[in-house]
Design a protein that fits this description.
Blueprint: H1 3-11, E1 16-21, E2 26-31, E3 34-42, E4 45-51, H2 54-63, E5 67-69, E6 78-82, H3 89-113
Antiparallel strand pairs: 1-2, 2-3, 3-4, 4-6, 5-6
Pfam family, one: YjbR
Keywords: DNA-binding
Protein name: MmcQ/YjbR family DNA-binding protein
C-alpha cells in the first residue's frame, strides 16, 4: 500500500478533511476537526498513524514489528503502522475505518455534551 492509496481511502469518508502539518512533514486527516489519521514517512518508509483502543494498540504492537507507538501523538492510543510492512491492505483499511469511527463518536459525544 502507498501513502496515496491510504490518503485516498481516508478522504472517501464522509466529512473527511485534510491538512498538511509542515513541521511534521505529514498530512493529517480529520473528521470535523478531530484527527483520525496522519500519513507520513518514518525513517524513509511510508506510514500512517491511527487511533485505537489501548488494548488493540498493545495487541497490534505485540503481534507486528511494523506497528509502533506514535512518536508525535498519545502513545497509549495512537500507533504508527508501516504501509510496506507485514499488515495486509485489508487490515490497514479496517484500522483506518476504526480510527474514523472513533473520531465520529468523539464528535457526537462532544455535541451531546454541549447541548
Amino acid at each position: 500500500m502507498t501513502l496515496s492509496d491510504l490518503l485516498s481511502y481516508c478522504m472517501t469518508k464522509p466529512g473527511a478533511e485534510q491538512q498538511v502539518h509542515n513541521d511534521w512533514k505529514a498530512t493529517q486527516i480529520q473528521y470535523d476537526g478531530i484527527l483520525f489519521a496522519m500519513v507520513h514517512e518514518v525513517e524513509g518508509r511510508p506510514a500512517v498513524s491511527l487511533k485505537s483502543t489501548q488494548a488493540l494498540a498493545d495487541l497490534l504492537r505485540e503481534q507486528h514489528s511494523d506497528v509502533l507507538p506514535s512518536q508525535r501523538l498519545n502513545k497509549a492510543h495512537w500507533s504508527t503502522v508501516y504501509l510496506d510492512g507485514s499488515l495486509k491492505d485489508s487490515q490497514l483499511y479496517a484500522l483506518a475505518e476504526a480510527s474514523y469511527q472513533q473520531a465520529v463518536a468523539a464528535k457526537e459525544a462532544e455535541l451531546r455534551a454541549g447541548q
